[in-house]
Amino acid sequence: MLRFFSLGSGSSGNSYFLFSDHFGILIDAGIGIRNIKKHFRSRGLTLDRIKAVIVTHDHADHIKALGHLSNDYHIPVYTTAAVHEGINRNYCMTTKISSDYVRVVEKDKSFCLDEFCITPFEVPHDSTDNVGYFISYDMVRFCLITDAGHATDKMAEYIRQSNYLVLEANHDLNMLMMGPYPAYLKGRVSGPKGHMNNLEAAELLAQNVTEQMRHVWLCHISEENNHPELVKKTMDSVLRSYGIIMGKDFELDVLRRIVPSDLFLLE
Ligand SMILES: [Zn+2]
Ligand SMILES: [Zn+2]
Q1: Dist CA 194 CA 220 (whole Å)
Q2: How close is the Cα of 19 to the center of ligand 1, in Å?
Q3: Fewer CB within 10 Å: N-end or C-end of the chain?
């Protein structure tokens, strides 16, 4: 049985846990170790359920707890060589990942951990490097795409194969442009190596979702430039224009920033 929950999603920290009865993969570790423990405990889990961490990219909101997790709990950290270098240089890494726990992966090269088969793929972003992950486990095809500057054919290809998807819908473009961010930051966030906006995420989903999709979770929602109801409304209207009905063709939830999600059973 495969389960999934989000521990936190957004600029204050991202972390997701995908786990079977005897193996667990943490995707990103951008929230403090104490909060990770707290959220695990509240679900009756202990940190020894984490057998590997896979990392998308080297921004603080995705990597903060990696040093502690790897060194104190002896958990290997998988990501590209460039992301490992970026992590090592990052100011937020007061505890570095010991070389014993560094595991290097390559884009488009699948690797297996226990019964999980994992393929990292390119996602454009202004970090040292960034990858999405496509994960197969039995009949489950799970895909996670976050911090995506723009939609690519590669993302589309993996969305078409997925039945569970975590997809970034960071901001509403109007809210961003009318909002309090300074001009350079507006440019960065909305640029091709920034973050995906609601409309871009909705179009990418609507154009590539297949009838095998069961559940979509929207992640990395901006606090200042987005709202859960607004992103749902945008999704609903774009999907409807393609004849797709949220809640009927598949479930869709917006992951909250600080509060962990429910625990979902993937089958
Ligand atoms: Zn980022
Ligand atoms: Zn981020």
Answers
A1: 12
A2: 24
A3: N
